[in-house]
Specification:
It contains three helices and two strands. The protein has about 100 residues and is mostly helical. It has two domains: about 60 residues; about 30 residues, no CATH class. The chain has a two-stranded antiparallel sheet with strand order 1-2. A hairpin with a 6-residue loop joins β1 and β2.
Length: about 100
């Protein structure tokens, strides 16, 4: 009984940390809540996944901060990097820009 109580307390603490960390890193409240619920329910799977996704998002944020974007450039909705003109796909991430 004590083991299950301790396991739930650890899962809850990890889920709260994931939620607050995701908010600090710019995730939406809904996405942070989904990560937190996943970590609480299946800690062994979702915590490593969150840590990988967290590093990837940090790398993407650092990449976009390092490149200046003049006002003449359009920003890609998916990768947030600038491009010139009106191409049908993003030259950086390859996502379709036409709706």
């Amino acid at each position: 009984m004590l083991f299950f109580l301790l396991a739930n307390i650890i899962s809850l603490a990890a889920a709260l940390w994931v939620f607050y960390d995701s908010q600090k890193r710019g995730y939406t409240v809904g996405r942070g809540l989904l990560w937190a619920v996943g970590v609480f329910l299946v800690l062994i799977v979702f915590l490593p996944l969150y840590l990988v996704a967290r590093k990837e998002k940090k790398r993407l944020l650092m990449a976009t901060r390092g490149t200046p974007t003049p006002s003449s450039l359009n920003l890609c909705f998916y990768c947030r990097r600038g491009y010139e003109g009106s191409p049908s796909v993003c030259p950086h991430c390859g996502q379709n820009l036409r709706v």
